[in-house]
Amino acid sequence: GYIARHVDHSVVIQKQKLEKERADNDAETAETDKSKPVTIAYAISFIMCENFQSNSAGLVDASLVMRHSIHKISVRNPDSGSKYDYKMYAIVHRQAEACSKALQAAGFEIMVVDNPVQTKEIRGDFLRKKIRREFCCGINEFIKLYAYNKIPEEIFVHVDIDFAFYKPMDNLFDAMLYDKDSEEGKRARSLIERERGTDAWPDRIDAFITRDWPQVAPHKFPPGYQAGFAVGRRNPQAFNEIIEIIKEGNYTEGWGFSCGWGNKGYGGYVGAMAMQGLIGYYYDHIQPNASVELNHCLYNHMGMDVRYRKQPNFNPRLADSVGKCRNANPEDVCEDCMVTEPDKIYSVHYTMCRKPWQCISNGIPGGKMPGGQRGDAVNTDTVHLDHCMGLVKKWHELRLDFEESLLALTSDSSIRDGMKGLYKQDIFLGHCNGEGNDGYLKLSATDDILRRSSELYN
């Protein structure tokens, strides 16, 4: 039974050599993956096509300028000092799919979704009957929750489209990705500007948020979450928990500590039945010690007065509250966001200062010009006009930088046609020909040229 076997040693040696090369390549790939910048997901939710942010520029121009602002604060821009990369996502409601192509051209990966909850699934009578009327989008606003479970990156930043970024947020990302006891984690936490320095830090940070303080009186009821901005951690469990809260529908009509979500006071104000009230309730009561509240003068900046002395939601009969900080600081300390130095601001949410593409430069108490329409002027009861115009100019500087970069890339002189506006050039930098929506000059470029804009960011 002995059978002689011939061994080809050259084949064995070649096989061993290939295995060693494969192992070396795997090690090199692993090392390369470690050295590659961590990617942060930046997401918006796009819910409806019609009347979008006042005119069509609210989709096309706003998305392009936002993407440009994110690029400038990322590792892809060496001048930023950031170590984090980015990827863009648009969570698009199925009813808005037809007009989402502009977002794809602007570099967003499109995720078409249906509502995570149907109205008929809500067991609470009041919420089920009234949610459709809630600002801004009723039950449709809950598509924002898909950021927790549909985006693959570990960290996401979800914002509204009327938003721009001006400073890197590396400290926030470091604080979430590094252990609290590590040198990196300690350093990051020490550098983060919070709304109240007296708040305890969570052991693990799952979210950074800002609050909608201008909607509440000092110490009268809990504030909502400002739904235009969140930095969060991918968390399918959080998604499932929040969806179950909505389905339960434990929401009581009214305004005060016994109303709203869970009868805990998260109700009565704008957006309370939707994200504004829901997320505030979730992080305060369902998952306490998981979120950090950022200084809202620096993050998600809207330039609003934080002291209780004028509208919104102001009652002069609350004499013990007039003039005090709305932000629940135990020492009655709050920064005046109406005069925050622009170079300290990480991001701006263009709400009370109006959309930059609306070409609004007039200011008046109440925000309505004589004989005009609501919102056709900056409301000087809540913001300072000069401060707002400085913020609007910063957006137009971003747009101008994008245009000049695209012009240098493509040599398409027609891009200059959107830069010839003569109205208040010191603010609008050639992008407006008159006051109001009709005065705005949209970005001037063909679809083919706009698609090439992605070449600016590779």
Explain this structure to me?
28% of the residues lie in helices and 11% in strands. The protein contains eleven helices and 13 strands. It has helices at 9-35, 60-72, 101-105, 125-130, 170-177, 183-191, 236-248, 275-286, 385-410, 425-428, 447-451, and strands spanning 39-46, 85-93, 109-113, 155-159, 163-165, 207-209, 229-233, 251-252, 260-261, 291-293, 347-349, 363-364, 378-379. α2 (60-72) links the parallel β1 (39-46) and β2. The longest helix is centred in the first third of the chain and has 27 residues, at 9-35.
Q: Outline, from the CA principal axes?
A: globular
| Number of helical regions | 11
Question: What is the H-and-E element order?
Answer: HEHEHEHEEHHEEHEEHEEEEHHH
The residue ranges in which pLDDT falls below 50 over 5 or more consecutive positions are 1-7, 26-32
Q: Using DSSP, what is the number of strands? A: 13
Mean pLDDT: 90
Q: Structural class of the helices, strands and pairings?
A: alpha/beta
What is the distance, rounded to the nearest whole angstrom, between the alpha carbons of the first and last residues?
67 Å
Rg over alpha carbons: 25 Å
Largest sheet: 7 strands, mixed
Strand arrangement across the biggest beta sheet: 3-2-1-4-7-6-10
Helix content: 25-40%
Strand content: 5-15%
